[in-house]
Amino acid sequence: MFQPPTNLFTQREWDAIFLSLHKYTSKQIGRILNISYRTVENYTAQIYRKVGVSSAQQLEEYCRLNNFDLYVPERFLQPESRIFI
């Protein structure tokens, strides 16, 4: 139930994907994950390379086609989750 749909991405990358699919900016994602927005941008570049896309729209389509958009990382199901800023 809480397992990622594939091992293609690290847990941090899954966190970034989840937030990106919910239209959070790199700066917002960085604040939520307590990392710099530059680190988020590095994660995003790694994710794009792994799946062969070059934009957020293409990533969203890729995730939708593979049902990755249905995955919610466990950290965001916790009551103390700071997803809503």
Automatic annotation (TrEMBL):
UniProt keyword DNA-binding present? yes
Is DNA repair tagged as a keyword? no
In the record, biological process GO terms are: regulation of DNA-templated transcription
Q: Which UniProt keywords apply?
A: DNA-binding
For this protein, what is any one GO molecular function term? Answer: DNA binding
Limits of the HTH luxR-type domain: 1-67
Which InterPro entries does the entry mention? Sig_transdc_resp-reg_C-effctor, Tscrpt_reg_LuxR_C, WH-like_DNA-bd_sf
What single Pfam family name could you report for this chain, choosing any that match? GerE
In terms of SMART domains, this protein maps to: HTH_LUXR
Can you name this protein? Regulatory LuxR family protein
